[in-house]
Design brief:
Layout: E1 50-54, E2 60-64, E3 76-81, E4 84-93, H1 95-103, E5 115-118, H2 121-131, H3 134-148, E6 153-159, E7 165-171, H4 179-189, E8 192-197, H5 200-207, H6 218-221, H7 231-236, H8 243-246, H9 261-267, E9 285-291, E10 296-301, E11 308-311, H10 312-323, H11 337-358, H12 375-389, H13 397-438, H14 443-447
Parallel strand pairs: 7-8
Antiparallel strand pairs: 1-2, 1-4, 3-4, 3-5, 6-7, 9-10, 10-11
Helix pairs in contact: 3-4
């Protein structure tokens, strides 16, 4: 907006903000207002002469255009302030200013100060020099507060355009005695000092930031009057009472908890309040969860993990029955007969399914022989039958196969006998040569029985057991 050189629109085309989300003037998108009556033809005779002017941090005040200056939204103007003058930017004018003053309960009387003139380039340069002192001033003032050990937090400093006064914004939980602090500030910065206490929400609005929703903070864009927010708003909306999720950047409860509260309160009118468990034959049903917009309520029997849903009308009906001393069977039915019939139907269906899938297709088996016969016996019987049926003097296929197998077995047997004879002759010759090399055989050796099947090993040296490896 006005006052920002990086995204100025004076040339007719937007250059785009190049501060990467941290505007140096703290004016971009702060408490902006759209004049939706600007295109309407309003009589100029009864034109409202009070103008809304915006200052640093989104602070807005109202001034009277006594000289009927031709002003447009965003023009820098020099306005009258106590003990000097200041520069602000026109944010709204016309009939909308009248509505805003009625909303904020500001009276149109002589207490409204006037607009001097449209700011010149010299006025703006002097104001820029005063603003350049704000950053070093806030650092030095925080050091002085720490030296005095005051329980307060300085958040912002604003210099007047005439460089004669500075307003220090601070937040504190308790009352702070800053008389000595004002003396040190006046002697350090050579200006008149004004201390203004603000709330934590106002502090967050002046500093700005991005909320968890991904948008800019509501307190820095459009909220100017803060309403009290309590934890009951979170309870009505069935939100978990987690302080880290319910609190905003200011450390207080989020202002957006009040946005949908009226809608939830209207929806809760048709939802019954369950203060004690519902009495049923299946057990006491305790409320676990409520869906306000779908009109459904979840209960559990005897604190079980299984939840059963029912409508709000059914819950009201059960509450009326319990007041009369009548106990229904469960949350859905009043008597158990309907339940028994449903169980019987389900059992019949299960039995039908079991019968359907239990019937298996029987495989076709071949003709079986007499009882007690094996497969080989049955094959032999078939062969004999085929031989009997064959004419005399002819051989069947089975006879040819058996004769061929018999010849093969006879040839294999003759071959094995020949191999045995050759191997025995070779062994006898080898034994004869060994006996000739050994010499005469002793009588003791002849009488000793031979250890057939036992392998002979060299004697074991028992003395080596005690030695290490």
């Amino acid at each position: 907006m006005a006052g920002c050189s990086s995204c100025s629109t004076t040339t007719g085309s937007s250059g785009g903000c190049q501060n990467n989300g941290t505007c140096g003037t703290s004016d971009c998108n702060k408490m902006n207002a759209f004049d939706w009556l600007s295109h309407m033809g309003i009589p100029t005779i009864d034109k409202f002469d009070i103008v809304e002017v915006k200052f640093k941090g989104g602070r807005k005040e109202y001034f009277r255009n006594v000289d009927h200056l031709p002003l447009t939204t965003g023009d820098p103007v020099v306005v009258d302030v106590p003990n000097g003058h200041h520069i602000g930017f026109v944010s709204l004018q016309g009939e909308l200013v009248r509505l805003q003053m009625q909303k904020r309960k500001i009276k149109d009387d002589d207490n409204i100060l006037r607009i001097y003139r449209i700011a010149s380039q010299k006025d703006i340069e002097k104001w820029e020099d005063a603003k350049n002192r704000e950053v070093p001033t806030i650092y030095r003032s925080k050091q002085i507060v720490d030296e005095l050990k005051l329980d307060m937090k300085l958040s912002d400093v604003e210099y007047q355009a005439d460089n004669s006064k500075a307003t220090f914004y601070y937040s504190a939980d308790d009352r702070v005695d800053f008389r000595e602090l004002i003396k040190l500030f006046a002697s350090e910065f050579k200006i008149r000092v004004e201390m203004r206490q603000i709330s934590l929400r106002q502090e967050a609005g002046r500093i700005g930031g991005i909320g968890v929703c991904g948008r800019e903070l509501c307190c820095s864009t459009w909220i100017h009057d803060f309403k009290s927010v309590s934890t009951s708003a979170a309870r009505y909306q069935n939100l978990s009472l987690n302080p880290s999720k319910l609190s905003g950047q200011c450390g207080r409860l989020k202002c957006c908890l009040n946005y949908e509260l009226d809608t939830y309160m209207a929806a809760l009118e048709n939802v019954p309040t369950v203060e004690k468990p519902l009495q049923t034959e299946s057990g006491p049903a305790r409320l676990q969860k409520t869906d306000i917009f779908r009109k459904l309520m979840w209960f559990s029997y005897n604190n079980e993990n299984n939840w059963h849903s029912t409508t709000c009308e059914r819950v009201k009906e059960i509450q009326e029955m319990n007041e009369k001393g009548v106990i229904p069977f469960d949350l859905h039915t009043n008597k158990a007969k309907g339940i028994d019939e449903e169980v019987l139907k389900s059992n019949l269906e299960l039995e039908r399914l079991d019968k359907k899938f239990s019937i298996k297709k029987k495989k076709k088996r071949k003709n079986k022989g007499l009882p007690g016969q094996t497969d080989f016996d049955q094959q032999d019987a078939k062969r004999t039958e085929s031989n009997i049926k064959a004419p005399e003097g002819t051989q069947t296929r089975g006879d040819n196969q058996r004769s061929r197998n018999k010849r093969n077995r006879q040839g294999r047997k003759n071959f094995d006998d020949k191999n045995k004879i050759v191997s025995n002759s070779k062994n006898e010759a080898q034994n004869q040569t060994n006996r000739e090399n050994q010499g005469p055989v002793k009588s003791d050796d002849v009488n000793k029985p031979k250890n057939k099947g036992n392998r002979r090993f060299p004697p074991r040296n028992r003395g080596d057991q005690s030695k290490g490896d």
